[in-house]
Each structure stands twice: as C-alpha cells, then as structure tokens.
Amino acid sequence: MIRRYFSPRIKNIIGILIISMLDVVIIITVFYIAIAARKMIIPLLFTDVPVFSLRWMHYWWIIPVWFVTLLFQGAYTRRFTFWDEVKMLWKTAFYATMIIFAILFIGKKGEFVSRATIVTMFFLSLIVLPVVRIQAKKLLFRLGLMKRKLLIVGAGPSGRLALDAVRNEPNLGYVVTGFVDDVNPAPGYINGIKVHRYIERLDRYIRACGIQDVMIAKPELQRDHLISLVNNLQHKVENTLCIPDMTGMAVLGTELRHFFHYQTFAIEIRNNLARPLNYLMKKLFDFFISTILFILLIIPIMFISIIIKITSRGPAIFRQERIGKKCRPFLCYKFRTMYADAEERLNNILETDTAAKDEWKKYWKLKNDSRVTRIGKFLRETSLDELPQIFNVLKGEMSLVGPRPVTKKEIEEYYRDAANLCFSVPPGITGLWQTSGRSDTSYDERISLDSWYVRNWNLWLDIVILLKTIRVVLRREGAH
Prior knowledge:
It is a single chain. By secondary structure, the chain is an alpha/beta fold. The chain is built from 18 helices and twelve strands. It folds into three domains: 2-142, no CATH class; 148-245, Rossmann fold (3-Layer(aba) Sandwich); 276-337 and 372-475, no CATH class. The chain is 52% helix and 12% strand.
C-alpha cells in the first residue's frame, strides 16, 4: 500500500518522520535506563551518594539537545554508509553530552542533575542508538520508505565497481534501476540490471523511471562531455554523484579546497601518520586499550599456556623474529600452535606434495597443516594464538591495528618497494587483511591492503577494524 499510493518524495518524508520520532523514543528510553542504573549500581559502589532530583522539569531540556545535535550532524538530510552512520551517531552522543555538561556548568544546574546519569546515558547510547536506528532503517527500506532510485552512467569496470559498492552498502537505501552507456555492442544486463544505450537519451530514462540520483562512473569521459553531462543532470535529478579514477590513492580524510574565483578545486590528501599529534593519538589509543585487554585477558592467557604445556612438549609461547617499524627486527610473541619438529615436517610436506608447495608459495600458510597440534588448530581458528602479542603492544613494538608482522624473507621476496611504506608504522595484531578474508587473502592482496591502510589511516579506521575483527573472529572467517 505504501509503495503504491505515495510518491517517492512523500515516502521519504514519512520515513524521516518515523526515524526522527524513533530517535526521540530511543533517547528517552536510554535516559530512563541510565536513571535506573544510577539508582541501583552507584549505591552499591559508594556509600555517600548525593541525592538528586527525578522530576521531569529538571531533565526535559536534554531531549531537545540530543535532537538538535542529530539535526546538525545530518542525521535526517544525508545518506550514510553503515560505518559512517555509526561514526555520526557516536559523534552526536559525544557532542550532546559535552553540550549538556556545559549547560549544567553555566546554568548551575549540577545540584539537580546526576552527572553519573549523563555519563551512563552516553555509554548506553553508543550501543543502543546505532543498533536500533540501523535496524529500523532496514525495516523502512523493506516497506519502500526512504529508498532512492539510482541510475549509473557507465557500464564498464568502474560502473560494475559502483554497482558492487552500492549493493554492499544497503544502509544507503539506493536501488539501482539501470545503467546507461554508449558501449557497442551494449551488454543486455549486468548482474540483473538492464543496460540502456545512448547517454544522449538520459533525460528520457530519468523521466520514465522516476530517477532521483545519478552516479557517473565513466572515467574515460572527455572533460567537456563530463562538464556538460553534470550541468545537465544538476537540474534533472536531486543528486549527481561522480566517481573519479583514484584507485590506489588515499581516499579517507581527503577534503576539497575550493578556489571560487577560478571555478576549480583541489583534493587535499593528508599524510595523517606523519603528523606527530596523530601518531601520539594512535600510541595512546593502543596503550589504553591494550592495558584494559591485558587486565581482562591475563587469566585466560595463563590458562591457555598451561593447556599447551600439558598437551605437547615445548614452550607455551613461541617467539619469532618479525620486522617492525622502519624495518627493524623484533621478537613477536604467539602461543605455540605447532609440534616441536614443525620445520622438519614442513620440509617433508613441500618435497612430497606439489599442491601444498604451490599453496605455501601463494599464501605462506597451509590449509590442512599436519604441523599444527589439536589445541593449536582451535587457537588458530579463534585467533587466540595471537593474544600474547598484547605484550608487544605494551612494549611499543606493535600496534593493535596495522600491517601484518612479517619475516625478513617475506619482505625481500614479496614486499620489495612497498616495504618502506607498509613499515613506516608498527605492525598490528589485526588489520585490513584480517577483516578481508585473512588466510584466504592472496599475498599481493595483503600487501595492497597494508599499503591502503597506511595511506588512509585515521583513528576511526582503527576503531572500525577492531570492531570488524571481533565479528570475523567470532565467525571464524578465513582462519586456518
């Protein structure tokens, strides 16, 4: 019924109203949960707890502060990818909390409002707001609300890449209705999406299909043709998106610098990790998180060490020389997952099994590795074998997130010119390679991912990789 009787604009407005009302409900719910937590938990920890007011007149203004902050963050006017939406909501929670504390200080309302409640509300909102909001958007999309019809100009490799990118980000709410290109002969369909001929007929397709947004993914277009196309589309659709050919270049954290008098702009690409403040932030983040992890995991580390010692001879923790920042060697810690005669077994396997030799050459790992102990197989599948690397992080030799720690032989054989870039930062316990297939990723892909990470680093990227690592480890994706 919703799909049939309402125009796309009305459906979008209905969706935004529902999401905005849901946000208010979430904020109020989180607030009352925080109040309940304050009443139940704080008295158990502290005996001398100040009494604070529970009257609504002292708290009502908190809701508008949150809602206005959401508005200023573009929560109802912009479309976000999954991780960008999480980032936007986390920033909203931080800014709203800071504004609330500022109002409490300036307005001298601290005696009426519990600061512990505000802090609890902040931490709860980091989880509740993204989870509920993103799931609600999925439901609205299924009902046909807030979706946008997208037409892609270009049916070549860039157009196919654009289709994959849009489909892998359902949180954007785009529905690709077709391609338009001048290729001859034109492919009939690409992954089930029809390819239309002749870019000159673009206006007709836009009117006939009710297109709202157009994405230009055709880098081979001549400059004059591209300018004419964009200027024409700007008055026909709500948004025009252009995908430049920047493969291999840094894309995160780039900014446009406009030169208005000259009708042009420059793309500013920063070397984030070369800035001392950014590098200090990364080091402090590593130290803070790894210290918490050490406190939480020291008992499991001791327990696993005992099991390894009982089940096979040899040390519980295996130390191997790896290459660190600026290509300096260091001893990397891991739980021992192999038998004591692992080297001899490997040589025998590579001499007698051609398929295993090819697999080793490509991945530097074996899927069915007879050198691995029974407990070692479990540790590898769950990535628990890497827990001792927390000590490397605390010593400053490694980072929580970074390029793979590799041997000198791997650098000489595979990295070559990419080594200086990849190891301009400390290697990490996890990284893009681990969240992109892990052992199923080819060596060239690993190097490409490590290079991309260094070029595109920012603190939010580290947070995203850590969160994605938890999911990958729990699902045991690509581990062997």
